[in-house]
Every structure is written in C-alpha cells, then in structure tokens.
Amino acid sequence: MNIGFLASHNGSSSLAITDACLAGELMASPTVMISNNSESKALEWAENRGLKTFCMNSKTHLEAKDLDQAMAQKLQDHKINLVVCSGYMKLIGPETLRIFENKILNIHPSLLPKYGGAGMYGRKIHEAVKQNGDAQTGITIHLVDTQYDTGKILAQKVIDLLPEDDVSNIEEKVKQAEPEFYIETIRKIIKGDIVL
Predict the structure, then answer these.
(1) Architecture of domain 2-191
(2) Given this model, what pLDDT does residue 175 score?
(3) What's the pLDDT score for residue 86?
C-alpha cells in the first residue's frame, strides 16, 4: 500500500507512520508528502526520509480547481492507495475526493461529533473540553468528505481526564496518544479489519 500524506505544519502523526513503515512495523510504503505551507517541517523530514515532496497551494495554483486537479494528479502519478491527513488545515477539493473516495483519512483530537467543524482545531478543541467539564476526551479517525470533520467515523479512542487536568494536560494526553492510534488504525485497514 502506497501512502500519500497531507500536512500543513509538523505532520507529527505522519512522521510516526512513516517511521513505522520504514522500520517494518507497518506494511506500507510512505511515498509522497504534500503541504500547502512551503515552510512546513513536514516537507523537511519527509525529504530526509526519501519521500517525494511537493508544496501545493493558492500561490502555486491560483485557481482552486487547478490546485485540486494538480493534487489529484500528483497522488495518482505516485500510485497512492491511501491518503493520510496529518494536521492538514485545508478542505480537499472535489476532484481529489472523487478519485480517492473512501481513501482519505483524517485524525481529529476529540470524540466526534463533539467539537468538530470549521474553526475547531488544535487548542480550541481542548479548551472546549475543559470549559464543558468533560470527564473524557479522545481521538477520532474518519474518512474525509466535503466538510470539516463530518466523514464516516472509522475508529475512536477514549482518553480519561482528571478534574485537575488543565488545557495543556488535555492537549498533551491527546498528542501523546495520536501517532500510535493512527498507526494501529492504518494497520487494521491494511489487514481488512476496518473496511473503507
């Protein structure tokens, strides 16, 4: 299975997935990293690990339609079977969604449908969890569709919280658990235990 990654910043989960593949712990080939941010650390580490790297955004492609088609083409050219979003902060275009239907994954740091949608990302999610006094938070891995965080849920991991946990503790607990949970979920997809 050839994996293509989309990341806007560090792509820490995609780094963990790549290293698991390179170590033979995940039977897949990390192939391509696409970022909308030319300064992203993800492009740097991906290149160092031998992935093909591309910066694609509204500067490289002025029209959204052209960007969408170029991204879809790039993923097809490299025979990508699974697209993994790792902190990718843009909606994916209709052509890429059509060609890779049910083959694009995203990770979200809450138990969707709680705390999802436009504007709900990063620390904002953990602040909402704390503000509402939730006893649990977690991680959701879902298929990507035309909206933020509304695609079919494939796997969820519950993380218990303590009353004294502040926003930073909550954020750290989720961040610590994300990479391994993403790897575990992709392993189940490869084995056929999770059907896309």
Answers:
(1) 3-Layer(aba) Sandwich (3.40)
(2) 96
(3) 96
pLDDT in tens, 64-90: 999 999 999 999 999 999 999 999 999
State residue 54 phi and psi, 5-degree precision: -140, 135
Q: Residue 49 to residues 127, 142, 183: CA-CA distances in angstroms?
A: 35, 26, 18
Distance CA 185, CA 136 (A): 20
State how far the alpha carbon of 97 is from the alpha carbons of 40, 75, 83, 180, 190, in Å: 23, 12, 10, 26, 20
Q: Which residues are catalytic?
A: 108
Cβ atoms within 10 Å of 45's Cβ, excluding its own: 20
Task: Output the six-digit token pair for 7.
Answer: 């990341």
**Which pairs from 162-170 meet CB under 8 Å and 24+ separation?**
165/130, 166/130, 167/123, 167/126, 167/127, 167/130, 170/126, 170/129, 170/130, 170/137
Residues of the chain with pLDDT under 70: none
pLDDT of residue 161: 98
8 A C-beta contact, residue 170 and residue 126: yes
At 162 the pLDDT is: 97
Q: What is the pTM of this model?
A: 0.96
